[in-house]
Write a structure and sequence with these properties.
The chain has five helices and four strands; from the N terminus they run ααββααβαβ. By secondary structure, the chain is α+β, with helices and mostly antiparallel strands.
Length: 144
């Protein structure tokens, strides 16, 4: 895989075309994390937003760039590319210690933050009627 710099991945996001498109930041979710058992500084609050259609496209393009344009050979590689590309687009606020491009940040931390986001997004989907988590489009807060 090519050595891709974070600033290269953000190039698409700064293109004039995308800046003119209204982004889907009306629905947000704020949650707290505590990974102090790993490192005492790994505590903080995150805010994510529901992505617009163009942002979903951005996630796909970033993922393809991370994978060097080839299909992933294993599940872990696909998961890492999905998590990094998604969080890079939907994170509005995060603790200073959290950087999706930090090689030293444990996968388990990335995955936990991503799962909080994806569970929130999934709460907007219509269920079969047996689920108790129906979700709302209002701003919400939870704690991991």
């Amino acid at each position: 895989m090519a050595d891709i710099k974070p600033e290269v991945l953000k190039t698409l996001r700064s293109e004039d075309t995308l800046l003119k498109i209204k982004q889907g930041k009306r629905r947000t979710h704020t949650f707290k994390v505590d990974f102090s058992e790993i490192n005492e500084k790994f505590v903080g609050t995150f805010t994510v937003h529901h992505p617009s259609q163009m942002e979903r496209l951005q996630v796909g393009v970033l993922k393809a760039q991370l994978l060097g344009g080839v299909a992933p050979l294993d599940v872990m590689t696909d998961n890492i590319a999905t998590i990094i590309s998604t969080l890079d687009v939907v994170l509005d606020d995060k603790p200073d210690w959290f950087d999706v491009f930090d090689d030293e940040l444990d996968y388990e931390i990335l995955e936990a933050v991503y799962l909080e986001y994806i569970n929130w997004v999934n709460s907007f989907r219509k269920g079969t009627g047996t689920e108790s988590n129906k979700g709302t489009s209002e701003n919400s807060e939870s704690q991991v």
